[in-house]
Amino acid sequence: MRVLIVSSPGIGHVFPMVSLAWAVRAAGHDVLVATTGQALAAADAGLHTVDIAPGFSFETNMRDAAARHPHLMALARGGLTDPRQVVELFGVVTRPLVPAVLAAAERWRPDLIVHSPTDGGALLAAARLGVPVVHHGFGFFSAGPVAQAMRENMADVYAEHGLTSGATRSVTLDVAPPSMLAEPDDFGWAMRYVPYNGGGVLPDWLAQDTGGRPRIAVTLGTVAPRVTGLGPVERLLAVAPRVDAEFVLALGGADLSGFGELPANVHAVDWIPLGPLASTCAAVIHHGGAGTTLTVLDAGVPQLVLPSGADRHINARAVAARGAGLAATDEDLDVALVEQLLGDDKLRTAAQEVRAEMAAMPAPATLVPRLVELAG
């Protein structure tokens, strides 16, 4: 079986598909990832990857889109609240990539296409080649309705290519725990979210005893620091000295020189996979990216979500509604909020319940035979 994985040009969209790609490869099938921009990081996961748009810049694309669709960009910065808004925004991003996706699919001739639901080109490719498509979720809204909304959003592009309908066979694959999934798709498959945040040699201090002092990881993901800046870091640095905890700033090597000398209980790290870090923490404070949120849930620790735009408000609401953490604004960040995050046993209990729920979901390897059957 030949499987083509098509991702929108973002790490947060391609990383959730890595575990399934590994499972398919381990079963002896061929896998190719077709994407561009930051999502080319899939190659670092040992996956064969093609750049469908060399030189593509997400930032440049978004600036151009902002000039043409200012209301969408204002919405993205303020925070999307509905999956259909996500589709409207990413429709602008994926439309220019459709010809490249079609070309890659026609060259490779897959038996099955797996795609992030905000990528519209894969839908056209599956329809043109007559192969089934899997809508692979990456957050807390079901991938099926999102893919259908993308199909409707791109009706004019379908018409341009002489297509009147989508793939004849499709399946939704959702990775969010069922108790937190919005708009569940009755015809979808559930798959356990296996965190992949990049590889790396783990530092010795990660395994060292903290002496009973709780450790709190702070991360803003890969996109937010470039788009909205370092956000709550300054406020956190003012709060940290008054909290009896060790804070780890996992900001991907962001320049912190403007903040002066860090408090004694705060240290910054250049890069470390979030999964291993979160598993040593009592709590995590972050920006609300879907991959970050799911990775922390997999670790079973409470989280404080400070959403900074895009779909992060959707993710923050899901966490707060399940009781596995808190959702707040940057301005809300104070000593009392951090102490609540550390001291509220209900948050920890709910986080551990979600962790158990995720662990009971079907592992990626168990779905491979079903993919083979789907591919026919």
UniProtKB/TrEMBL annotation:
Keywords: Glycosyltransferase, Transferase. GO terms for biological process: antibiotic biosynthetic process. GO terms for molecular function: hexosyltransferase activity; UDP-glycosyltransferase activity. Coiled coil: none annotated. Residues 235-374 form the Erythromycin biosynthesis protein CIII-like C-terminal domain. Residues 22-221 form the Erythromycin biosynthesis protein CIII-like N-terminal domain. It comes from the Bacteria. The keyword Transferase applies. Belongs to the glycosyltransferase 28 family. This is UDP:flavonoid glycosyltransferase YjiC, YdhE family. It comes from Goodfellowiella coeruleoviolacea.
